[in-house]
Amino acid sequence: MASSAYRLQGSGMIEAVGLAKTFGARKAVDGLSFQVQPGVVTGFLGPNGAGKSTTMRLMIELDRGDGLTKFAGQRYRDIERPMRRVGVLLEAKAFHPTRTARNHLRMLAAANAIAPKRADDVLALVGLDSVADKKPKSFSLGMGQRLGLAAALLGEPEVLMLDEPANGLDPQGITWLRDFLKAYAAAGNTVFASSHLLAEMQLMADHLIVIGRGRLLADTTIGEFVARSSHTTVVVRSPESARLTELLAGRGAEVAVEADGMLTVTGMTQEQVGDLAFAERVLVHELTTRVATLEEAFLEVTAGEEEFGQSGGPS
Question: What is the mean pLDDT of residues 268-278?
Answer without folding.
Answer: 96
